[in-house]
Amino acid sequence: MELDSTDWALLAALQTDASESNQALAERVGVSAPTALRRVRRLREAGLIRAQVALLDEDRVAALQGQGLTALAEVSLDRQGDEHLQAFERRAVQDGAVQQCYRVTPGPDFVLVLRVADMPHYQAVAERLFTQDANVRNVRVFFATRCAKFGTQVPLRAGG
Q1: Recorded GO terms, molecular function (predicted)?
Q2: CA-CA distances (angstroms) from residue 62 to 57, 74, 95, 147?
């Protein structure tokens, strides 16, 4: 699939605010509303747009709920064969507390971003993902005290 400057402009605009109307999106990128609608549909069908979601302010939601804890975990496995990496990855991505899961190198095998209500909930996650897995050799966890930046945008080259 080849993308032109309009496609790239639509992708960039949607990353900034996917909640605006199709008419406003079309005006922002300088095309007609039917063109914007058709192009966005094509980009979605091609799998370039995975989902359109609302991003919640974790700190404000946590304040309303009473608590919230973000942890970053480095996980090293004893056996790193592909089947072992895939098995851990499957378990991690199925856990609701895991917000992001990355295979990394060098160093640990995985870095996980976890979001839980409080320390007892973190301990339950640690038991499920780390303690019960005989292949987990080492886990280093960092608890976030403040988030200075959180981004979701995929960098796009100017004009594609």
Answers
A1: sequence-specific DNA binding
A2: 8, 24, 19, 13
Residue 159 has pLDDT above 70, yes or no: no
Please state which of the four CATH numbers 3.30.70.920, 3.30.70.640, 3.40.50.720, 1.20.1540.10 is assigned to the domain occupying 58-143: 3.30.70.920
**Contacting residues for 36 by C-beta, under 8 A, at least 6 apart:** 10, 22, 25, 26, 29
Q: Helix (H) and strand (E) counts for the chain?
A: 6, 4
User: Is a pLDDT exceeding 80 seen at residue 57?
Assistant: yes
Angle between helices 22-29 and 5-16 (to 10 degrees): 130
> What does CATH list as the number for 5-45?
1.10.10
Q: How confident is the model at residue 1 (pLDDT cuts 50, 70, 90)?
A: confident
The DSSP symbol for 19 reads T
Which 3 state secondary structure label does DSSP give 121? helix
Prediction pTM value: 0.82
CA–CA separation, 116 and 33 (whole Å):
41
